[in-house]
Design a protein that fits this description.
The chain has helices at residues 43-49, 74-85, 100-109, 139-149, 152-168, 170-179, 183-189, 192-205, 211-220, 248-257, 274-285, and strands at residues 2-6, 12-19, 24-29, 51-56, 91-96, 114-120, 235-240, 261-266. It has 293 residues and is an alpha/beta fold. Strands 1-2-4-3-5-6-7-8 form an 8-stranded mixed beta sheet, sandwiched between helices.
Length: 293
């Protein structure tokens, strides 16, 4: 079920619900770039799991209005707003890729409402000490963060051309991305259903502009606005050892700095390996009444 939720400043947030409407609520936060139509378990499977899954377009993506100057911590405010609108008091939250830091924001800033948080193939904060932030990262991502350091205008110009290419031919863009992936990811993205989903996800997220993508990268490049050490909810961190978009050392660093974290780094897996474990982590996040990670 699709709906629009309005923030106090008049912004629209586009929200989608699937699965069991009476089930245990879990927010799933999409990657970068992406949309509410991103990777998720089938509705029938969610129903059997007893999960009420809520997805949303982050500001600037799809049908959600841009929130100028948003930071990673801003996501917690939007999730709280949507939870209030849906009359959900307590929930799990799972973020994949670019959604993962935003899931950690919910755990840090909504401690009374976030029961469990899963962060799959996450980045670490840009000020992470004792971490070579760019080591092992693909050139395209490094370029984006270098452009972000030069300012939003330069980043907008750089990502604008990539956005136009995706809008004009999503299938060609996904095929090009697949050709550059590690072997384990190429096998996953070779699936026709996953290809179609990625095409639909990217096209919807970037349908109007590159704003969401630009604002995500700017947010990841500046202070996240919360302390990881203060997280009290159980956190599940998953990463593929061969990830080239967000290197696995980022998750290992997070694991050393989140006191409640459980860390799983899978050998012979990479970025899109998160799609294989997503259902399992969503099921874990839905177990609101179970103690411990």
């Amino acid at each position: 079920m699709a709906r629009t939720v309005y923030a106090g400043d008049g912004r629209r947030l586009s929200v989608e619900e699937t699965g069991d409407p009476e089930g245990r609520p879990v927010f799933l936060l999409h990657g970068t770039p992406g949309s509410r139509l991103g990777p998720a378990p089938r509705p029938s499977l969610l129903y059997r799991m007893g999960v009420r899954l809520i997805t949303l377009d982050r500001p600037g993506y799809g049908d959600s209005d841009r929130r100028p100057g948003r930071t990673v911590r801003s996501a917690a405010e939007d999730v709280c707003l949507i939870a209030d609108e849906l009359e959900i008091e307590r929930f799990g939250v799972v973020g994949r890729s670019g959604g993962a830091p935003h899931a950690l924001a919910c755990a840090a800033l909504l401690p009374d409402r976030t029961a469990r948080a899963g962060a799959l193939v996450s980045l670490a904060p840009p000020d992470a000490h004792d971490l070579d932030w760019f080591d092992g990262m693909t050139e395209g991502n490094v370029d984006a963060y270098v452009n972000a350091a030069a300012g939003r205008h330069r980043l907008s110009a750089a990502l604008g051309s990539r956005t136009r290419a995706i809008r004009e031919n999503p299938a060609a863009s996904v095929a090009k991305m697949r050709s550059e992936l590690p072997e384990s990811d190429r096998w996953i993205v070779a699936d026709a259903g996953i290809q179609a989903m990625l095409e639909r996800n990217f096209a919807e997220g970037l349908r109007s502009s590159a704003d969401g993508w630009v604002d995500d990268v700017m947010a990841f490049s500046t202070s996240w606005g919360f302390e990881l050490s203060g997280i009290t909810a159980p956190v599940y961190l998953w990463h593929g050892e061969e990830d080239i978009f967000a290197p696995a050392e980022h998750t290992r660093w997070l694991g050393r700095n989140i006191p409640t974290a459980r860390v799983e780094v899978e050998r012979h897996a990479a970025h899109f390996g998160a799609l294989r474990v997503m259902t399992r982590i969503i099921g874990w996040a839905a177990q609101h009444n179970t103690e411990g990670p």
